[in-house]
Amino acid sequence: MLHSTDSVPACETNRKLSAIDRAKKSIAPRAELKDWLSDSSAVSSAVASDSDSDTTSSDTSDTSGDDSIQVHSHVDDDVSCHAHDTDTDTDTDAVTFDNGGVQLVYRDNVTRIPGCSFTHDVHGDSLPHVPAVLTGLMDDWLAVLRPFSFSNADPAAGSTGGTGGSTGSIDSTSTSGSTSIFKTARVSLDGGPSFARMSMGQGKVTLEEYKHYCESGEASKDIAPLYVFDPDVLKSTFASDNDEFHVPECFSNDVMACIDGTEYRPLPPAWLLVGVKRSGTPIHDHPLTVAWNALLVGCKLWCCLPPDVDESLLLLNLHDDEEDEDADADADANADFDLSALEWFRQCGKLPESAKIIVQRPGEVVYLPAGWFHVVLNVETSTAISVSLALRRDLPVILPLLMESDEDFATFWIDRLRLHLHLHDGAAADMDMDMEKTLAQCCIDTLMMKKTYKN
């Protein structure tokens, strides 16, 4: 239950708020700061505030994070897997959770595919239809050689700008010499408890302030830590035209680019993600676009579920016991369906065989087809680049469905695609012809769908 801001508790007014505290107030004005904390952290925070009114919420010696989450390079057969097991070779990475004395093990079961397999596929037509991990695509990125990270390494270690591949601190490893960006550029935050997740972009801090949140122990007190989810710093710090990073060829043609910046695609497709341990993205899907996520530093745990997955895995707190419908209705009304990534992994239980588990390591690119549900947890403090795009090959499926659900959107997109094709010169004639055939077939399929629906 959120508390009204009409009466601010003394523990909040008697101390100086940290930058993250102020961001939290911007994200969820009706919430008290203690609503963001775990129960034990809220009690200790209140005691600390009463004892020293000048102490900020980030003053703590706890910098260990959540030691109940561990990443393993190999998992033996005798390790019980409460949450998910597969027939995959056990000589794989895995993440374990100590969940109230019960060990949960999530073992990677996704194939690694050399990225060179798609070198000449500029439209991504041959990309798999299930989640995959692509390797080798980041080998020549300067952003990998000098990763943009929040490690616990000595901040001075990377100050010389060396390219030895070590994980220095975020303020000293960007090849752009971005000290001023680190201290002055304000980045958007995402994540947090469910009451905070409808306000993306409302809370902003500098990268230096977020680094302090990560390393001071302040983040370890939050139920669901915040993370950086920002497009602007990506453009200013990682310049794609000077080899900091570049878009792999198989992701180079976005058929939704023609509507960028419009009401139907107002947000940028590329984002910089920096997340402390235990932060993450709740379960969701991208019905129209595929996504690729390139990990520079850290480790991420993914669970990907197919588009036709049972709804019970998406809404874990949904009750379906018909014997007491009234009680279930009351429980559902008070349930938190939008669980944080951490809580989802702790509560999801046995997963179906179709679930894809990925333990993503630096240098790996996770590829996610359109429509797949996914939840992502930072099991180590991580830095990544995430990009979404629509593939040409998916248009025959997504455009007719979009026409049924949002005819204005679909019509606008098709008109923009056709305009884009007509502006191309002769060098793109073959591609234009293929696209024109695809659009024509989409329109035919859409008309047939509408006719069938009406009948």
Fraction of residues in H or I helices: 25-40%
CATH class of the largest domain: Mainly Beta
Number of helices: 13
Q: What is the rounded Rg?
A: 23 Å
Q: What's the CATH architecture of the largest domain? A: Sandwich
- Domain module count: 3
Poorly predicted tracts of residues: 3-10, 42-65, 76-83, 85-90, 149-177, 319-323, 327-335, 425-430, 451-455
Q: Strand-residue fraction? A: 15-25%
Element order, helices and strands? HHHEEEEEHHEEHHEHEEEHHEEEHHH
Largest sheet: 11 strands, mixed
Distance linking N and C termini: 48 Å
Shape: globular
How would you characterize this protein structure?
- The chain has 455 residues and is α+β, with helices and mostly antiparallel strands.
- The chain has 3 domains: 10-51, no CATH class; 104-390, Jelly Rolls (Sandwich), CATH 2.60.120; 393-454.
- The chain is 28% helix and 20% strand.
- It contains 13 helices and 14 strands.
- Strands 4, 5, 6, 7, 8, 9, 10, 11, 12, 13 and 14 form an 11-stranded mixed beta sheet that branches. It has a 3-stranded antiparallel beta sheet with strand order 1-2-3, with no helix packed on it.
- Helix 11 (395-405) packs across helix 13.
- The longest helix has 26 residues, at 429-454.
- The protein is globular, with a radius of gyration of 23 Å.
- The N terminus and C terminus are likely disordered.
